[in-house]
Amino acid sequence: MSSRDPETTTTTTQPLALPAPSDAEDVEQITLDGTRTFTFNKLGPVVVNSDGTLSRIANWEQMAPIERETTLRVLVARNKVRLANQEKQQGQATEGEKLSISNAFES
Fold it and tell me: How far is the C-alpha of 47 from the C-alpha of 31, rounded, in Å?
């Protein structure tokens, strides 16, 4: 017979928690055209893919500031077009409903 350590056999009753919100030092602000300011965490902006799914830019943290500004300028324009296309497709499928991420989680 083997004896078991009670600490290894008991399960944790508390759920695992997310890390605390980051401080202001982890937040980055980029201003485009001197008028629009965008605030990001270290993950960078959200990309709307052509099929409507969302993703992030994998190498955002390694980009130089000028690369980030250029990427953001292109991304903002592309995301607007892709969101408009998704709303148009959704409008044809179900008339009257707006595109919303929260609709996917409702049961």
Answer: 18
- Contact partners, residue 63, CB within 8 Å, separation at least 6: 57, 71
Cα-based distances in Å from 65 to 2, 28, 70: 60, 10, 9
Q: Please give the helix or strand (H or E) that residue 48 lies within, else none.
A: strand 46-48
Query: Residue ranges per domain, the chain?
Result: 23-99
Question: What's this model's pTM, rounded to 2 decimal places?
Answer: 0.57
pLDDT band at 81, cuts 50/70/90? very high
Q: What is the pLDDT of residues 82-96, one digit of tens each?
A: 999 988 888 776 555
Q: How far apart are CA 71 and CA 43, in angstroms?
A: 14
Q: Distance between CA 67 and CA 47 in Å, rounded?
A: 16
Q: Classify residue 72 by burial, with Cβ atoms within 10 Å: 0-12, 13-18, 19+.
A: buried
